[in-house]
């Protein structure tokens, strides 16, 4: 299998060797059936959030196998824009009916998606919102199905502010600066910190990556020993921040928050290493997009609209309450 690409095809009662092949030579939807083919194109497969997203999508397809076939794709890391563009092109060439995409960049994927729409393919945007100005200039209308990233980040920041004292120094680990969700999460963090009277002494992009976050956070903490908290725009970077505090001898001394609610961060919250995160329900996020695509395919006259999906604050208290509820 080509590096950076995972294709999972789920077919009811049919093995891969009984199917057609897609443009990459991998198994595609079964020949001769009338079910629509939906392609899910995600970002980094190394990020637990997107593996959770893929699991949720494949589970949904198994439960609705009579309704549609699914092709799941991803890239090696968040910065591999050219490969994600290629995936869009490959899915168009393979004849899918719909593309549900979490774009790695809010602008770079728009030309490829324009060509997909010109080929009659339904396109649904999830996770990271495409740039509205560029869409308008291209004359495109692509619905966004996803959470309010700014509101989610502000909720996390507000919770953090309650554990700090006005005037405390904090820093931000940003996502990719060309990604709308990264921009919105940074803005939400900044609003919460400014309203609470905190001092943002540094803010840098770690490009969603754990190792880069470790390096940058270590530098921040060394340069600004007064830092009391780190706000990370995703959970991978929050995990990198944990390693950074340990490397500079400040483990347990700096409050850390994240965004995504991956399993590793849930354990870190329970263990007191991370204060809070935001849950945008990654296991359902692709499902929301797939359902929007299926609705459009079944009724072409229906106007596609943006759909705001849930985002919730996750803390040690909420995790404990969830566990207690499951035991009842």
TrEMBL record:
Start and end residues of each Periplasmic binding protein domain: 38-297
Superkingdom, natural source: Bacteria
Pfam families tied to this protein: Peripla_BP_4 (PF13407)
Keywords per UniProt: Signal
Subcellular location as annotated: Cell envelope
GO MF terms held by the record: carbohydrate binding
CDD domains: PBP1_ABC_sugar_binding-like
GO cellular component: cell envelope
Main location: other
InterPro entries recorded: Peripla_BP_I, SBP_2_dom
Family label: Belongs to the bacterial solute-binding protein 2 family.
The protein's name: D-ribose-binding periplasmic protein
Organism the protein comes from: Allorhodopirellula heiligendammensis
Gene: rbsB_2
């Amino acid at each position: 299998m080509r590096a950076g690409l995972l294709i999972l095809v789920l077919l009811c009662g049919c093995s891969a060797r009984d199917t057609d092949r897609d443009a990459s030579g991998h198994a595609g939807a079964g020949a001769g059936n009338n079910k629509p083919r939906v392609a899910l194109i995600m970002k980094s497969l190394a990020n637990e959030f997107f593996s959770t997203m893929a699991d949720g999508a494949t589970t949904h397809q198994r439960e609705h196998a009579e309704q549609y076939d699914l092709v799941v794709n991803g890239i090696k890391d968040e910065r591999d824009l050219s490969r994600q563009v290629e995936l869009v092109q490959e899915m168009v060439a393979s004849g899918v009916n719909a593309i549900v995409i979490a774009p790695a960049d809010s602008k770079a994927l728009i030309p490829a998606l324009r060509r997909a729409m010109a080929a009659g393919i339904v396109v649904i945007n999830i996770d990271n919102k495409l740039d509205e100005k560029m869409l308008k200039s291209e004359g495109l209308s692509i619905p966004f199905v996803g959470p309010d990233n700014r509101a989610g980040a502000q909720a996390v920041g507000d919770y953090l502010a309650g554990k700090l004292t006005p005037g405390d120094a904090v820093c931000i680990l940003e996502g990719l600066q060309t990604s709308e969700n990264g921009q919105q999460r940074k803005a939400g963090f900044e609003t919460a910190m400014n309203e609470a009277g905190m001092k943002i002494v540094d803010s840098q992009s770690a490009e969603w990556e754990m190792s880069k976050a470790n390096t940058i956070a270590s530098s921040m903490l060394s340069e600004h020993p007064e830092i009391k908290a780190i706000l990370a725009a995703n959970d991978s970077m929050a995990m990198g921040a944990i390693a950074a505090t340990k490397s500079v001898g400040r483990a347990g001394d700096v409050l850390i928050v994240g965004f995504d609610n991956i399993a590793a961060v849930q354990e870190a919250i329970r263990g007191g290493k991370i204060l809070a995160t935001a849950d945008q329900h990654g296991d359902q996020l692709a499902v929301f997009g797939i359902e929007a695509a299926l609705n459009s395919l079944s009724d072409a006259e229906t106007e596609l609209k943006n759909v705001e999906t849930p985002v919730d604050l996750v803390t040690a208290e909420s995790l404990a309450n969830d566990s207690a509820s499951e035991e009842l």
